[in-house]
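Bench notes, bay 3.
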Amino acid sequence: MSRWKASATHLVICVIIAVAVLLLMLFAWFPPPYFSAQGGKDLLMLIVSVDIVIGPLITLVIYKHGKKGLRFDLTVIALLQLCALAYGILAISKARPVYMVYAVDRFEIVNARDINPVDMKEAKLDEFKSFPLTGPKLIAAKLPEDIQESNELMFSAISGGADLSALPKYYVPYQTQKQNVINHLKPLSRLKASARLAHIDLNKVIKKTGVTEQNLGFLPVSTAKNDLAAIINRSTGEIIDVISVDPWV
């Protein structure tokens, strides 16, 4: 086998692995629009650069048919690539969005790395003591009723500590906070300027929902990279769509 054929074979194997990782990210861990909003492209490029580019290039350089120790060299390359791939997938798993948390007057996307394992053990409900396999799962975080505890939480967030959305002991099912969501909804008219900037036809988005504009509202969705807007039914509090527009314009 020539070095070019060996490198091409290596490349095909690497591409198959990279596609599998991409499918995992898109359909399980970073469903649209969170792939772009959470920096999924940057994480994918890390995998691609190591798995698709570097590995086959090294094979191209070192491969020589009949070379003494070639099998050992290729084994080392494969092991190093597997280690790099495992590290990359671990990094992606920690950066993946696990919860879409309604907190106070907005939604916040919480990554796996945002939640301290110690804090997770303090969750009042068993469903919040472990991460969902796919994400992000829609939930809510309820402010503590005790004023002192609420103030301590606020000062903790201001000083760089964990915020309400990253503390599982305050997590509750989304259904219990729907009325609060409805009460804080903003009119869709406030999104029209940012929708134009993002080249999104808001009227088409509204038409697709099957609900009149008057019966829809939105709330900001804070993410790691690009904030989004959640389109919500004013009657039910259900999220109908999440679109990639700046909710603060």
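Next record in the batch:
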Amino acid sequence: MSRGYTFQYRGSAPVASGQNGPTAGARFKPLFRMGYNHTFYDSDHGRCPDLQASPSPDCQSLLASFGMVFKAQATGFSVYFDEDRTADLVNSLKRRGMTGYGSDAGYWTRLTFVLQVANASFVDITDLPITTNPNERNLYANNSQAHAAVQGRSSGGDGAVARFCQGRYLAASDLFPVVGSEVTLTVPADAIQVDVTDISGAVVLSQSMPPSPSPAPQVVVLDLGTLPLGRYGITVVSDGGGSTPDTATSLVVYTNGTPSPLCLLDVFLTQPQPGMDGVYPVPSLWDNTPITADDVGAIDYILPFDARATQWRYYIVSQARGSHLTDLAIAGHGATFTRQPAPILLPSGSPAVLFTSDDPIKLRRIPPQRFRLTGQRQAPNGADQDIRVDCLPAAPPNPVWPGDTPQGGVSEMYVYV
């Protein structure tokens, strides 16, 4: 990882001792950088301008207490820390490991960020279910899932980076149901308790229920309003009539914002548990090795998305009334197309010759494919006219229509010749 650079904070007046926030004259270096990467933007080295991050309310409080600085950038964001407060940061993390959420499990102090979409076509161009709705499901990732990438780019520069996800890209498996501060559940009649656990597994909210005299399901309302935004497990404990209670757990993302966020990220400041995988800004506290400012930060993460692959459909329509298209063919590098045997009647009443790509094609901001259309048009009087379109239009970012699979889709192009 590159060590990055430092900058000096110059306030308009000295900050009082013990007051939260950056101190005038403080020297900052990157704690970490998060770069948004999307293969749709391959022509821009993957740099994606479609997301906007903001710290959650609890994250804002933590940043202030640590004297850190959050900076949003065009294709990512960065968090900076005061080099002179490194010892305070490490000691604070150790104390929080003994007194904070999940204190019985390790060092779970984390910075939480919500990401909103600045491009209405983001879901269309991204390899996610086409029905993805931020009001219903959100992506979730944290740096315990982060793993090294061979080469990449981040918002801070080029070089080795860590992918901030459990796979190569964020995917459908990273989507979780969204809940607000009030959660209404329908639970079985024999349910005796509902527990809410945070990312560490610690129970942060529990609600017991008296035995129900009715066999009808019960309704339970949970108030998450005092909890930080994050991913939680909701476990329903039922009597079940056996020697041990039955349990059923659902993972949800508690988030809010206007417009509705699409993604929630947790950045654990240090390794939560011994031997836990991931990439962390502060070295592990489990071996009690002294930590200096040189050991902390300068982590480059990328939040990677893959472009959606769609079936391309070309509808070829003759502009000459009464004419007939013959011997049409589409050729080019990057895909092959099959012509449907019978014309398709469009809503306008015009017949169209339909070509479909044999395999899905990745969407790109600047598509590398170049397809050529050739053929003939036969006029009503029998005269033939050659047709040649050297560069057919590529699939646009939207609309993308549902296809045979949730991950795919259909891109339609109408070509009038």
